[in-house]
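fyi for ur records
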Amino acid sequence: MSSTSNIYNVSSLLSLQSFDLPPEKAIAAFVFAAVNYTIILFCNCLLLFTIIRNKSLHQPMHILLINLPINALIGSTALFPHIMQRLLFDTSTITFSSCVTQAFFLHLYAFTVVFILSAMAYDRYVAICQPMSYYTIMSNSHLVKIISLVWLTNWALVGVLIILLLRLPRCRSYLNHSYCDNPSLLQLVCGDTTINNIYGLWYTGVSQILSVVLILYTYLRIVIACFRNKSSSNMRSKALETCGTHLIIFLLFECLGLFTVISYRIKDISPDVRKFSGVAAMIIPPTLNPIIYGLRTKEIRVSVLKMFKRKVYVS
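which gave:
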Protein backbone atom coordinates (compact mmCIF):
# COMPACT_ATOMS: atom_id res chain seq x y z
CA MET A 1 0.00 0.00 0.00
CA SER A 2 2.77 2.46 0.92
CA SER A 3 4.69 1.94 -2.33
CA THR A 4 1.52 2.56 -4.37
CA SER A 5 0.82 5.68 -2.34
CA ASN A 6 4.35 6.99 -2.97
CA ILE A 7 3.89 6.56 -6.73
CA TYR A 8 0.67 8.49 -7.02
CA ASN A 9 1.44 11.18 -4.41
CA VAL A 10 4.72 12.24 -5.97
CA SER A 11 5.24 16.01 -6.06
CA SER A 12 4.27 18.01 -9.16
CA LEU A 13 7.49 20.00 -8.64
CA LEU A 14 10.65 18.49 -10.13
CA SER A 15 14.26 19.21 -9.20
CA LEU A 16 16.79 19.61 -12.00
CA GLN A 17 20.52 19.05 -11.75
CA SER A 18 22.08 22.18 -10.29
CA PHE A 19 24.59 24.27 -12.20
CA ASP A 20 26.72 24.44 -9.02
CA LEU A 21 27.90 28.00 -9.65
CA PRO A 22 28.88 30.59 -7.06
CA PRO A 23 26.80 33.81 -7.16
CA GLU A 24 29.32 35.84 -9.18
CA LYS A 25 29.69 33.10 -11.81
CA ALA A 26 25.93 32.58 -11.92
CA ILE A 27 25.46 36.26 -12.80
CA ALA A 28 28.14 35.99 -15.49
CA ALA A 29 26.43 32.87 -16.87
CA PHE A 30 23.08 34.68 -16.84
CA VAL A 31 24.54 37.60 -18.82
CA PHE A 32 26.13 35.17 -21.29
CA ALA A 33 22.82 33.30 -21.71
CA ALA A 34 20.87 36.55 -22.10
CA VAL A 35 23.30 37.91 -24.72
CA ASN A 36 23.31 34.59 -26.56
CA TYR A 37 19.52 34.39 -26.56
CA THR A 38 19.32 37.98 -27.82
CA ILE A 39 21.76 37.18 -30.65
CA ILE A 40 19.72 34.09 -31.58
CA LEU A 41 16.48 36.10 -31.60
CA PHE A 42 17.96 39.00 -33.56
CA CYS A 43 19.84 36.95 -36.19
CA ASN A 44 17.05 34.44 -36.81
CA CYS A 45 14.35 37.13 -36.93
CA LEU A 46 16.54 39.18 -39.28
CA LEU A 47 17.01 36.20 -41.59
CA LEU A 48 13.29 35.43 -41.45
CA PHE A 49 12.30 39.05 -42.07
CA THR A 50 14.79 39.47 -44.92
CA ILE A 51 13.51 36.43 -46.83
CA ILE A 52 9.83 37.28 -46.28
CA ARG A 53 10.24 40.98 -47.16
CA ASN A 54 12.24 40.54 -50.38
CA LYS A 55 10.26 39.04 -53.26
CA SER A 56 13.51 38.27 -55.06
CA LEU A 57 14.25 35.72 -52.31
CA HIS A 58 10.93 33.91 -52.73
CA GLN A 59 12.71 30.98 -54.35
CA PRO A 60 12.33 27.31 -53.31
CA MET A 61 15.77 27.27 -51.66
CA HIS A 62 15.01 30.31 -49.49
CA ILE A 63 11.46 29.21 -48.71
CA LEU A 64 12.87 25.96 -47.31
CA LEU A 65 15.53 27.98 -45.47
CA ILE A 66 12.79 29.98 -43.69
CA ASN A 67 12.00 26.88 -41.66
CA LEU A 68 15.44 26.86 -40.00
CA PRO A 69 15.05 30.21 -38.16
CA ILE A 70 11.45 29.34 -37.22
CA ASN A 71 12.63 26.06 -35.73
CA ALA A 72 15.60 27.75 -34.04
CA LEU A 73 13.26 30.25 -32.36
CA ILE A 74 11.12 27.37 -31.06
CA GLY A 75 14.09 25.46 -29.64
CA SER A 76 15.91 28.42 -28.10
CA THR A 77 12.72 29.84 -26.55
CA ALA A 78 11.99 26.46 -25.00
CA LEU A 79 15.43 26.44 -23.37
CA PHE A 80 16.88 29.90 -22.69
CA PRO A 81 14.18 31.65 -20.59
CA HIS A 82 14.09 28.71 -18.18
CA ILE A 83 17.89 28.56 -17.85
CA MET A 84 18.07 32.32 -17.36
CA GLN A 85 15.40 32.15 -14.65
CA ARG A 86 17.32 29.41 -12.84
CA LEU A 87 20.58 31.36 -12.97
CA LEU A 88 19.01 34.66 -11.87
CA PHE A 89 16.88 33.31 -8.99
CA ASP A 90 19.15 30.39 -8.01
CA THR A 91 16.41 27.81 -8.33
CA SER A 92 16.47 24.27 -9.69
CA THR A 93 12.76 23.47 -9.61
CA ILE A 94 10.25 23.21 -12.43
CA THR A 95 6.67 21.99 -12.55
CA PHE A 96 6.04 18.64 -14.20
CA SER A 97 3.76 20.19 -16.84
CA SER A 98 6.38 22.83 -17.74
CA CYS A 99 9.05 20.15 -17.89
CA VAL A 100 7.00 18.01 -20.26
CA THR A 101 6.24 21.06 -22.43
CA GLN A 102 9.93 21.94 -22.59
CA ALA A 103 10.83 18.34 -23.49
CA PHE A 104 8.23 18.32 -26.28
CA PHE A 105 9.51 21.49 -27.95
CA LEU A 106 13.19 20.60 -27.53
CA HIS A 107 12.64 17.22 -29.16
CA LEU A 108 10.55 18.87 -31.87
CA TYR A 109 13.40 21.31 -32.53
CA ALA A 110 16.09 18.60 -32.63
CA PHE A 111 14.30 16.23 -34.98
CA THR A 112 12.84 18.95 -37.22
CA VAL A 113 16.33 20.35 -37.91
CA VAL A 114 17.36 17.03 -39.41
CA PHE A 115 14.31 16.86 -41.69
CA ILE A 116 14.67 20.50 -42.80
CA LEU A 117 18.32 19.96 -43.72
CA SER A 118 17.32 16.82 -45.63
CA ALA A 119 14.68 18.77 -47.57
CA MET A 120 17.26 21.44 -48.37
CA ALA A 121 19.68 18.76 -49.59
CA TYR A 122 16.96 17.44 -51.91
CA ASP A 123 16.42 20.97 -53.24
CA ARG A 124 20.16 21.33 -54.00
CA TYR A 125 20.16 17.95 -55.73
CA VAL A 126 17.29 18.95 -58.03
CA ALA A 127 18.84 22.39 -58.71
CA ILE A 128 22.22 20.96 -59.74
CA CYS A 129 21.34 17.58 -61.26
CA GLN A 130 18.05 18.53 -62.94
CA PRO A 131 18.30 22.31 -63.53
CA MET A 132 15.96 22.35 -66.54
CA SER A 133 13.15 20.79 -64.49
CA TYR A 134 13.93 22.61 -61.24
CA TYR A 135 10.94 24.97 -61.10
CA THR A 136 8.63 22.22 -62.32
CA ILE A 137 9.74 19.77 -59.63
CA MET A 138 10.10 22.38 -56.88
CA SER A 139 6.75 24.02 -57.60
CA ASN A 140 4.77 25.88 -54.93
CA SER A 141 2.46 22.91 -54.39
CA HIS A 142 5.43 20.56 -54.03
CA LEU A 143 7.08 22.93 -51.54
CA VAL A 144 3.91 23.05 -49.44
CA LYS A 145 3.81 19.25 -49.39
CA ILE A 146 7.47 18.99 -48.34
CA ILE A 147 7.18 21.61 -45.58
CA SER A 148 3.88 20.17 -44.32
CA LEU A 149 5.38 16.68 -44.26
CA VAL A 150 8.39 17.89 -42.26
CA TRP A 151 6.38 19.69 -39.57
CA LEU A 152 3.31 17.44 -39.29
CA THR A 153 5.39 14.26 -39.18
CA ASN A 154 7.58 15.58 -36.38
CA TRP A 155 4.65 17.00 -34.39
CA ALA A 156 2.95 13.61 -34.57
CA LEU A 157 6.04 11.51 -33.77
CA VAL A 158 7.17 13.71 -30.86
CA GLY A 159 3.57 13.79 -29.64
CA VAL A 160 3.53 9.98 -29.48
CA LEU A 161 6.85 10.08 -27.62
CA ILE A 162 5.36 12.34 -24.94
CA ILE A 163 2.05 10.42 -24.74
CA LEU A 164 3.96 7.19 -24.12
CA LEU A 165 5.79 8.99 -21.30
CA LEU A 166 2.66 10.43 -19.68
CA ARG A 167 0.95 7.04 -19.43
CA LEU A 168 3.57 5.81 -16.93
CA PRO A 169 3.46 6.41 -13.14
CA ARG A 170 6.16 8.55 -11.50
CA CYS A 171 7.80 7.87 -8.16
CA ARG A 172 10.81 10.24 -8.37
CA SER A 173 11.18 14.01 -8.65
CA TYR A 174 14.90 14.54 -9.41
CA LEU A 175 16.16 14.83 -13.00
CA ASN A 176 19.80 14.05 -13.59
CA HIS A 177 20.03 16.75 -16.26
CA SER A 178 20.10 20.55 -16.51
CA TYR A 179 16.96 20.73 -18.68
CA CYS A 180 14.01 18.48 -19.49
CA ASP A 181 14.03 15.87 -22.23
CA ASN A 182 12.55 12.42 -22.73
CA PRO A 183 15.52 10.35 -21.40
CA SER A 184 15.74 12.40 -18.19
CA LEU A 185 11.95 12.27 -17.65
CA LEU A 186 12.01 8.48 -18.07
CA GLN A 187 14.36 8.34 -15.08
CA LEU A 188 11.44 9.49 -12.91
CA VAL A 189 9.30 6.52 -13.92
CA CYS A 190 8.86 3.38 -11.84
CA GLY A 191 6.94 1.38 -14.45
CA ASP A 192 8.13 -0.65 -17.42
CA THR A 193 9.73 1.68 -19.99
CA THR A 194 10.46 -0.97 -22.62
CA ILE A 195 7.92 0.40 -25.13
CA ASN A 196 9.23 3.96 -24.59
CA ASN A 197 12.84 2.87 -25.13
CA ILE A 198 11.99 0.86 -28.25
CA TYR A 199 9.94 3.72 -29.74
CA GLY A 200 12.60 6.33 -28.86
CA LEU A 201 15.39 4.25 -30.42
CA TRP A 202 13.24 3.51 -33.49
CA TYR A 203 12.32 7.18 -33.94
CA THR A 204 15.91 8.36 -33.52
CA GLY A 205 17.35 5.59 -35.68
CA VAL A 206 14.90 5.95 -38.55
CA SER A 207 15.17 9.76 -38.66
CA GLN A 208 18.96 9.67 -38.54
CA ILE A 209 19.34 6.90 -41.10
CA LEU A 210 16.88 8.50 -43.52
CA SER A 211 18.47 11.95 -43.25
CA VAL A 212 22.07 10.73 -43.48
CA VAL A 213 21.33 8.42 -46.43
CA LEU A 214 19.38 11.13 -48.27
CA ILE A 215 22.04 13.79 -47.72
CA LEU A 216 24.93 11.46 -48.63
CA TYR A 217 23.08 10.30 -51.75
CA THR A 218 22.22 13.82 -52.92
CA TYR A 219 25.76 15.11 -52.31
CA LEU A 220 27.25 12.13 -54.13
CA ARG A 221 25.01 12.81 -57.11
CA ILE A 222 25.92 16.52 -56.96
CA VAL A 223 29.67 15.73 -56.99
CA ILE A 224 29.21 13.33 -59.93
CA ALA A 225 27.17 15.93 -61.83
CA CYS A 226 29.83 18.60 -61.27
CA PHE A 227 32.61 16.33 -62.55
CA ARG A 228 30.58 15.30 -65.59
CA ASN A 229 29.62 18.83 -66.59
CA LYS A 230 32.28 21.41 -65.81
CA SER A 231 30.45 24.22 -67.60
CA SER A 232 28.26 25.42 -64.76
CA SER A 233 25.09 27.40 -65.36
CA ASN A 234 23.99 30.33 -63.21
CA MET A 235 21.58 28.15 -61.23
CA ARG A 236 24.25 25.49 -60.78
CA SER A 237 26.76 27.97 -59.35
CA LYS A 238 24.13 29.41 -56.99
CA ALA A 239 23.23 25.93 -55.81
CA LEU A 240 26.86 24.94 -55.26
CA GLU A 241 27.40 28.11 -53.22
CA THR A 242 25.13 26.81 -50.47
CA CYS A 243 26.27 23.16 -50.53
CA GLY A 244 29.35 23.68 -48.38
CA THR A 245 27.35 25.74 -45.88
CA HIS A 246 24.62 23.13 -45.73
CA LEU A 247 27.14 20.34 -45.10
CA ILE A 248 28.88 22.28 -42.31
CA ILE A 249 25.58 22.93 -40.52
CA PHE A 250 24.49 19.30 -40.86
CA LEU A 251 27.80 17.84 -39.61
CA LEU A 252 27.93 20.28 -36.70
CA PHE A 253 24.43 19.43 -35.53
CA GLU A 254 24.94 15.68 -36.04
CA CYS A 255 28.19 15.61 -34.02
CA LEU A 256 26.72 17.59 -31.11
CA GLY A 257 23.50 15.58 -31.11
CA LEU A 258 25.27 12.22 -31.36
CA PHE A 259 27.57 13.05 -28.44
CA THR A 260 24.58 14.14 -26.33
CA VAL A 261 22.74 10.85 -27.03
CA ILE A 262 25.85 8.79 -26.30
CA SER A 263 26.48 10.67 -23.03
CA TYR A 264 23.23 9.20 -21.63
CA ARG A 265 24.55 5.68 -22.26
CA ILE A 266 27.95 6.27 -20.62
CA LYS A 267 27.59 6.10 -16.85
CA ASP A 268 31.17 7.18 -16.07
CA ILE A 269 31.00 10.42 -18.04
CA SER A 270 31.39 13.63 -16.08
CA PRO A 271 28.08 15.39 -15.25
CA ASP A 272 29.69 18.69 -16.32
CA VAL A 273 30.56 17.24 -19.74
CA ARG A 274 27.00 15.93 -20.13
CA LYS A 275 25.58 19.33 -19.18
CA PHE A 276 27.91 21.16 -21.57
CA SER A 277 27.22 18.83 -24.51
CA GLY A 278 23.46 19.00 -24.00
CA VAL A 279 23.35 22.79 -23.76
CA ALA A 280 25.88 23.24 -26.60
CA ALA A 281 23.68 21.17 -28.94
CA MET A 282 20.84 23.60 -28.23
CA ILE A 283 22.91 26.81 -28.36
CA ILE A 284 25.50 26.55 -31.15
CA PRO A 285 23.33 25.60 -34.19
CA PRO A 286 20.62 28.28 -33.63
CA THR A 287 23.37 30.89 -33.18
CA LEU A 288 25.47 29.91 -36.18
CA ASN A 289 22.74 28.98 -38.69
CA PRO A 290 21.57 32.52 -39.59
CA ILE A 291 25.09 33.95 -39.41
CA ILE A 292 26.60 31.30 -41.70
CA TYR A 293 23.69 31.28 -44.15
CA GLY A 294 23.55 35.06 -44.15
CA LEU A 295 27.27 35.39 -44.91
CA ARG A 296 27.53 32.50 -47.36
CA THR A 297 24.34 33.08 -49.37
CA LYS A 298 24.97 36.03 -51.67
CA GLU A 299 21.33 36.98 -52.24
CA ILE A 300 20.59 37.13 -48.51
CA ARG A 301 23.81 38.99 -47.74
CA VAL A 302 23.08 41.61 -50.40
CA SER A 303 19.46 42.02 -49.26
CA VAL A 304 20.50 42.52 -45.62
CA LEU A 305 23.13 45.11 -46.57
CA LYS A 306 20.65 46.99 -48.77
CA MET A 307 18.09 47.03 -45.97
CA PHE A 308 20.58 48.44 -43.42
CA LYS A 309 21.88 51.03 -45.91
CA ARG A 310 18.31 52.14 -46.56
CA LYS A 311 17.69 52.49 -42.82
CA VAL A 312 20.87 54.52 -42.35
CA TYR A 313 20.02 56.74 -45.33
CA VAL A 314 16.46 57.38 -44.10
CA SER A 315 17.62 58.16 -40.56
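The longest helix spans residues 194-228. thats all i got for now
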